[in-house]
Amino acid sequence: MKNCPDLATIISYSSGALSKSFALLVSSHIEKCDHCRRNIDRCCEMGGSFLDAEENTALENNSYALFLDKLEESKNTERQLSVKDTFDKSSEVPVSLQRHIGRDLSSLKWSFLAPGIKKCSVKIDEKENKHLTFLKIKSKKKIPEHSHLGSELTLVLKGSFDDENGRYMAGDIADHDHTSRHEPVVTSDEDCVCVIATDGPLIFNSLIANIFQSIARI
Ligand SMILES: [Zn+2]
């Protein structure tokens, strides 16, 4: 795997601090990236030894009961998933995303965004109104240059794109913060499908791009 999330993103993921949309993309990436999985294991080990060192941590009286409740809850969820869902590891959709979009990218409800670009927004958390934006972009097409108010993770599911940082292939993640400005171009012969998680609106940097943004509302 050539392009991985920043170490700061990996540390946040390990500590459970990432929002659900970001965490889903990192989970999808580490399904095929041993390098990041090892880093996450290391972070978890460091976190565990830090907790061990906190000898004076006061536990609430009902901590153990709460722990047992959580354990039972997670067992029930696992049971429900194993009955309802069968995941396909050979699919181009990572297993982490299959429970939200199924196994087949063509089953997404794509809508027109701009010439050569289709979009599909998938809600992944009703309570927090979190969603992921999927883009399907034709070969040689450009996404207008943009920057962000917050962070952005882009995971490639199919095909490839280039930006000023290099080439991103299926499984790669582009990890951008608010200082980034980038203008990806699809370099594969086939359509490029990628999924984007953001915590702030994208800012397009030209008039035409602003019109694009108002149509796209991403
Ligand atoms: Zn990685």
Account of the protein in words:
With 218 residues, this protein is of the alpha+beta class. The protein has one domain: Jelly Rolls, CATH 2.60.120.10. Helices cover 36% and strands 25% of the residues. It contains six helices and twelve strands. The chain has helices at 7-14, 20-30, 34-53, 63-84, 95-101, 207-216, and strands spanning 111-114, 117-125, 130-137, 146-148, 152-158, 161-163, 166-168, 173-176, 181-182, 185-186, 192-198, 202-204. It has a six-stranded antiparallel beta sheet with strand order 1-2-3-11-5-8, with helices on both faces. Strands 9-4-12 form a three-stranded antiparallel beta sheet. Strands 7-6-10 form a three-stranded antiparallel beta sheet, with no helix packed on it. 27% of the residues are buried. The model has no long low-confidence stretch (mean pLDDT 79). The structure holds zinc ion. Residues 1, 4, 29, 33, 35-36 line the site of zinc ion.
Q: What is the overall silhouette? A: globular
Number of helices: 6
Number of domains: 1
Tell me the CATH architecture.
Sandwich
Topology (SSEs and partners):
Layout: H1 7-14, H2 20-30, H3 34-53, H4 63-84, H5 95-101, E1 111-114, E2 117-125, E3 130-137, E4 146-148, E5 152-158, E6 161-163, E7 166-168, E8 173-176, E9 181-182, E10 185-186, E11 192-198, E12 202-204, H6 207-216
Antiparallel strand pairs: 1-2, 2-3, 3-11, 4-9, 4-12, 5-8, 5-11, 6-7, 6-10
Helix pairs in contact: 1-3
The chain binds zinc ion.
Zinc ion (ZN) is lined by residues 1, 4, 29, 33, 35-36.
